[in-house]
Prior knowledge:
Blueprint: E1 22-24, E2 31-33, E3 37-42, E4 48-50, E5 61-64, H1 67-75, H2 78-83, H3 93-114, E6 118-120, H4 122-130, E7 134-139, H5 145-154, E8 159-161, H6 166-170, E9 180-184, H7 187-202
Helix pairs in contact: 3-7
Amino acid sequence: MGEQATRTDTPRTSGARKAAPERRCIVTRETAPRNGLIRFVISPDGEVVPDLGERLPGRGLWLTARGGIVRRACAENSFSRAARRSVHVPADLPERIAALLDRRCLDVVGLARRAGEAVAGFEKVREAARGGDIAVLLEASDGASDGREKIERIVQEGACLSLWTAARLGEPFGRDRVVHAAILRGSLADRLLRDARRLEGMRNEGADTGAPELQES
């Protein structure tokens, strides 16, 4: 895909946090923090359903959030083996997951805007950066490189995501285009980062099997 991340620094957080619960990937058999995995359940009619919100009833089947790993699970009948029954795997499951994560991310950005926890535009982002309020910097993937470098020099802390074009990034702000935006510190920033890391992983078709963890310092 043309929309890719360029830099994903670790955001600074205050205070110690409990370690994220761990789950085992049914393909790699590796145990990793749940933040970097995707939960699936089997519907009553036997279809594999991604449970991104982790609220659906039933036994959870977990996969490392990597496009290549999900495709392996589909090709190697991993869901049926883990569920110990015959199941139906949608042919477009990896694409479906990526689309759902993409929508979840932009919905969180929109929610942050309505809650006053997001700003858009070079000057507003720069002002928020000077106050040390930025948790996540959002840069349009098709934005001019000089403008991106300039704002990244100003924003010294937090994560930087470049997953959407200016047109897509403008959607949650009700604008035609947004090149520079930021999510301020708070729980919504944490929610965005988790889904953004998983979205990055789903766009990764390489052989890397590691889960895209949401690290903290």
